[in-house]
Sequence to fold (134 residues):
Amino acid sequence: MKKIVNCYFAKSDILIYLLLLIVAISPLMSKFFHSEVKGEDSNYYNSLFVEVGYQGSKQIYPISQDRLIDLKQGKIKIEIREKKVYVVESDCQDKICVKAGKIDKPGQIIVCMPNKLYIKVISKKEDEYDGISF
Fold:
């Protein structure tokens, strides 16, 4: 005795659905397989800067040059090394700014509220990112 199975799709329908699924996923796959390696591009790092805002004033430094920045008579130390920026030492109580770690991409920020300090990586190319990119 034959069993009758209700099949809602024909073989050609399944092929069409698989093709549509591949087309829908391909932009996501190309992002993973064809991502740019920006670490080796010196022009990329030449367009990045570190903006340090401290108690209402701000200074801008290139991220490509290693340096140690002392604020508040040496009680706050910010270091730019190997194209990354981080807070080495701070006199605030919780040390959240020190625990924030290293940042190196445009839009990343470290904030220390007790000291009224922020450190932000900015790009010289302002049109490269928009509010949705992050």
